[in-house]
Amino acid sequence: MKLLSLNVGLPRESLWHGRPVTTGIFKDPVRGRIKLHRLNLDGDAQADLNAHGGKYKAVYCYQSQHYEFWKKELPGRDLPFGIFGENFTLDGLFEDSIHLGDRFSVGSAEVIVTQPRMPCYKLGLRFQSDDMVKRFLASGRTGFYLAVLREGEVAAGDEMNLLSRDGNAVPVSEITRLYITKRYDQNDLASLNRALNVPTLPESWKHYFRERMEQRSA
């Protein structure tokens, strides 16, 4: 898996439905080697730290192959790398082949997969489209977040090499599916129990899934 484009951006104000909104979703490609810190990249920041950023969302990754899908879905739309708010535009594995707890080296840094992306209204702002959030989630092309295990420098062109995989091996796509599934069957419960045993899945996700499981058994 290769890092094709490294994208950063600082929060800026933008109008959405006539009101100003401060957002960090606007990312632009940068050249050269950039320092990857525990919480973000040099030149990058999030506006709403309650919903974005933090150690479990230090880096957002999105696959370059997804752009081909969106070019068909959004004909005539200019889609430069970074438009989905991703820091890493990747060439390689998809959400069904990336797992919670997958640990990678990239440049001189080391990172680990924590969760899929759940889009908020600011994706709609970026595309100036009210239905973009729904379409993005329905597509299954969510991308995923990384936590930083070892700080280092990264650049476009770096390879992301798999170092280890959590024994529970729950794909990112499965977590997204379980999040939006209305009712759980026995296979779903087995997947959830594996996911709950992955240390890098944030506690907020585990709390949500535990509540859903309790509701099912009530």
Distance between the termini: 43 Å
Strand arrangement within the widest β-sheet reads 4-1-7-6-10-9-8-12
Would you state the CATH class? Mainly Beta
Find the structural class using helix and strand composition.
Answer: alpha+beta
- Looking at the overall shape, the CATH architecture is Beta Barrel
Helix fraction bin: 25-40%
CATH superfamily: PK beta-barrel domain-like
Number of domains: 1
CATH topology (fold) name: M1 Pyruvate Kinase, Domain 3
Low-confidence parts: none
Number of strands: 12
Radius of gyration: 17 Å
Q: What portion of the residues fall into strands of 2 or more residues? A: 25-35%
Explained architecture:
The protein is α+β, with helices and mostly antiparallel strands and 218 residues long. It has one domain: M1 Pyruvate Kinase, Domain 3, CATH 2.40.33. The chain is built from 6 helices and 12 strands. The chain has helices spanning 65-73, 121-127, 132-139, 172-180, 186-196, 203-217; strands at 2-8, 12-16, 19-23, 28-29, 34-36, 59-63, 88-91, 103-106, 109-116, 144-150, 152-154, 160-164. The chain has an 8-stranded mixed beta sheet with strand order 4-1-7-6-10-9-8-12. A hairpin with a 2-residue loop joins strand 2 and strand 3. The longest helix has 15 residues, at 203-217.
Blueprint of the fold:
Blueprint: E1 2-8, E2 12-16, E3 19-23, E4 28-29, E5 34-36, E6 59-63, H1 65-73, E7 88-91, E8 103-106, E9 109-116, H2 121-127, H3 132-139, E10 144-150, E11 152-154, E12 160-164, H4 172-180, H5 186-196, H6 203-217
Parallel strand pairs: 6-7
Antiparallel strand pairs: 1-4, 1-7, 2-3, 5-11, 6-10, 8-9, 8-12, 9-10
